[in-house]
Specification:
A hairpin with a 2-residue loop joins strand 29 and strand 30. The chain has 747 residues and is an alpha/beta fold. It folds into four domains: 85 residues, Alpha-Beta Plaits, CATH 3.30.70; 172 residues, Alpha-Beta Complex (DHBP synthase); 120 residues, Nucleotidyltransferase, domain 5 (2-Layer Sandwich), CATH 3.30.420.360; 190 residues, Nucleotidyltransferase, domain 5 (2-Layer Sandwich), CATH 3.30.420. Helix 15 crosses helix 16 and helix 20 packs across helix 21.
Length: 747
């Protein structure tokens, strides 16, 4: 395989390229390294295990004077380099002023933080040129202290000396501060009374955690809600207050060794956990660990991450045990980032709060990734990544703004060969989310000072983002179909040339189609500016529309009726509900037609009795995947392909037959997954014969399914296909704005 890296930071003029050369040569890798206008570009080819070792050692053994601020990494097909070389520096355009993401605490600052002799001992805002806040404190370019939220803190004499000394690690470190001149923390109780300040506040907070209290802690891009992750009573109470019934909580561990006590960690997962971005990494829990059951009540995974700011390190070292660290909000609302917001929920949502007086310029949630098929796949691209650009293999014709879809929204701004993607905004389902979306659009345009010639939205007229685009940008607005945008996003991040087309599988839950129906299982022959819908699942009614997303038994009723079966024979749901939904399907009342693969997964989950209703998005499909993962079943179910449709009815009848026979649910689930993989393989085979295209692109939220993605990555290449998957932006709707921006910039 080939690993391509774009590295930003202090990586030029510090011996970085010779280091890369030595490391690659030692590992027997081929390729090149060169300086570009944005940092360093590296391509290395070789065995997968050696590429992973290269990636790990690149970060752990880099030259002392160098610092890595970000690594945009992706595994691609090899091109056949003959050796490794240091190439001449590349300059394709003007040097861009970078707005860096927030950087996790560096080793030097961490050492000083816990050195009793250091003047910044246990100071929660310690930082230097190589770490600390960036994106969440910058107000405007250029990135100078007066243009950040540190503008109100005048440096003391000692800090000023460091800041002005070119030989000092804190030379021009804009957030530079110390206990004498910088921000400070204080702790308030449920009544809003200040009970302690500065270091004493941190010590009291640890004692409150030991007492089982639920607390709000102001961080880099907003507040976390924290509590003892091993205290079931505290975690269950947090669920009740946050109104989050079953969706897993993220857990912050004090170090990698502690993560290993609770979860299984592969080499690539370790790289992700300890990377400069410091995202939440979805791991498999170890049997018998003592995390509270309510941390992840319905799955055997845990979203694990490490402390990424000094404040976290102080709390975790003092407490000793892992803590739940989830966004401070009520479910479905944006993360809180102002002291005033949290003061309004004291005594209700939280028992107390740790506040500080460094203003947060913009909300920025934690990022989430999962290792699948030997790749780190982002599920949510936010802190640590935003607003770094995705670099394109071509230049856009015009500046463009992309507004995203409706769920998991991000906003994107494209110019030249760069697309800047905002932090995670989320689902636009309420007034607060709408305001967050508007402030993000305004903020991105102001920060990069780019005036878009075109603005792109989804075709769905009911989306707030589409309505906003029409109202605010008028004639500048153009639209792109949802599943085409998914396809463009995976093509762009995998650097597909402008003149090439792919066989795209765009599988998700919901998207507006060219025929006005709800799409979601689209097999497209697609380029960047056009597509042809070649195949899709046979349509079925979706009784209640969006209601069926939260009540998957409705999907099961629809599927059962389509194959002539009685819902009451398979579903343990109140008879009056089954009768009501059946009549909706029979009479076509509020039952739009859909080809959604996501809904098919939901329906099978309900038929297996896994979930009739869900408490968070795609819960049924997620649990179906988890149950199926315990099976070694290699069989599959039949299906037909005719007239441009993949007919799932024989599949369903075979599923029902296995259910009647009492087959293990895990085996039925795995056979269903295998069937979907076969649908992909057969579709790709047919379309390659028809078009000659041998590149397959996988996008859409369904490809967050590890079983499906890994089987496709294994089976398709064995049949001679090149496979493109997401590694830079999420396969879900969080990556859609990239596709929208590229479309708008090229059309």
């Amino acid at each position: 395989m080939r690993l391509k890296l774009y590295v930003t930071g202090v990586v030029q003029g510090v011996g970085f390229r010779p280091f890369v050369y030595r490391l690659a040569t030692e590992l027997g890798l081929k390729g090149y390294v060169l300086n570009s206008e944005t940092g360093v570009v590296i391509e290395v080819e070789g065995e997968k295990e050696r590429l992973e070792e290269f990636l790990k050692r690149l970060q752990s053994e880099k030259p002392p004077a160098s610092q890595i601020f970000s690594i945009d990494k992706k595994f691609l097909e090899e091109v056949g380099y003959s050796g490794f070389e240091i190439r001449k520096s590349e300059k394709k355009g003007e040097v861009k002023v970078a707005v860096l993401p927030d950087l996790s605490t560096c080793k030097e600052c961490l050492s000083e933080l816990f050195d009793p002799e250091n003047r910044r001992y246990r100071y929660p805002f310690i930082n230097c040129t190589n770490c600390g806040p960036r994106f969440t404190i910058i107000l405007s370019l250029p990135y100078d202290r007066p243009n950040t939220t540190m503008k109100d803190f005048e440096m003391c004499e000692k800090c000023r000396e460091e800041y002005e000394n070119p030989l000092d690690r804190r030379f021009h470190a804009q957030p530079n501060a110390c206990p004498v001149c910088g921000p400070h923390v204080w702790l308030v109780n449920g009544e809003g009374e200040t009970v302690a300040e500065r270091d004493k506040a941190l010590k009291v907070l640890v004692e409150w955690l030991k007492e089982g209290k639920i607390l709000a802690v102001k961080g880099l891009g907003g507040f976390h809600l924290i509590c003892d992750a091993t205290n079931e009573e505290a975690v269950a109470e947090l669920r009740r207050r946050k109104r989050r019934q079953e969706k897993p909580f993220a857990v912050m561990f004090k170090d990698l060794e502690q993560v290993r006590e609770f979860a299984e960690v592969s080499p690539l997962e370790e790289i992700a956990l300890t990377s400069v971005e410091s995202p939440i990494v979805i791991l498999k829990q170890k049997e018998g660990n003592n995390l509270a059951p309510s941390v992840s009540p319905d799955t055997k995974t845990v979203g694990a991450f490490l402390p990424y700011m000094p404040l976290h390190h102080i709390i975790l070292r003092g407490f000793g045990k892992p803590i739940v660290a989830t966004s401070c909000n009520v479910t479905d609302e944006p993360i809180m980032f102002k002291n005033s917001e949290v003061k309004n929920v004291l005594g209700n949502l939280v028992d107390g709060a740790l506040l500080h007086n460094r203003e947060i310029a913009r909300r920025c949630d934690d990022s989430v990734v999962k290792v699948m098929g030997g790749r780190v796949v982002p599920f949510r691209r936010s802190r640590g990544y935003a607003p770094l650009p995705v670099l394109l293999p071509f230049k856009l014709k015009r500046p463009v703004l992309a507004l995203g879809p409706h769920m998991k929204v991000t906003v994107a701004l494209g110019k030249g060969n760069r697309v800047y993607i905002s932090q995670h905004i989320g689902d636009i389902d309420n007034l607060k989310a709408e305001e967050f979306f508007k402030e993000t659009v305004k903020d991105l345009l102001n920060l990069f000072e780019i005036e878009p010639e075109v603005v792109v939205s989804d075709y769905h007229l009911g989306y707030f983002t589409t309505k906003f685009g029409r109202e605010v940008f008028g004639e500048r607005l153009i639209q792109v179909y949802h599943h085409h945008a998914h396809t463009i996003s995976v093509m762009a991040e995998n650097e597909v040339p402008l003149d090439k087309k792919v066989i795209a599988f765009s599988f998700d839950g919901t998207g507006y189609g060219t025929d006005g129906k709800i799409w979601g299982s689209e097999v497209l022959i697609a380029g960047y500016t056009e597509f042809e819908r070649a195949l899709h699942l046979k349509y079925f009614p979706l009784p209640g529309g969006d209601r069926a997303v939260k009540e998957p038994y409705r999907v099961a009723v629809s599927l059962l009726k389509a194959v002539g079966e009685k819902p009451e024979d398979y579903l343990k749901v109140e008879p009056e509900k089954l009768s009501f939904v059946s009549q909706m399907v029979d009479k076509g009342i509020n039952s739009p037609l859909t080809s959604s693969m996501g809904r098919l997964f939901d329906g099978v989950s309900a038929l297996l009795g896994i979930r009739y209703t869900v408490n968070y998005h795609a819960q049924g499909a997620i649990l179906l995947e988890e149950i199926s993962s315990t099976s070694k079943e290699t069989g599959s179910y039949p299906f037909k392909m005719e007239s441009g449709e993949i007919d799932w009815r024989e599949t369903l009848l075979a599923v029902l037959s296995d259910i009647k026979k009492g087959a293990p649910l895990s085996d039925v689930g795995m056979k269903f997954h295998n069937t979907v993989v076969k649908m992909v393989l057969e579709s790709a085979r047919i379309l390659r014969e028809k078009t000659g295209i041998d590149t397959v692109a996988l996008s859409g939220g369904v490809f967050q399914n590890k079983i499906l993605t890994e089987k496709c990555l294994r089976e398709l290449p064995s049949k001679g296909f090149k496979v493109l998957v997401h590694q830079v932006v999420p396969p879900n709707d969080g990556g859609l704005s990239l596709g929208q921006a590229v479309y708008g910039g090229l059309i």
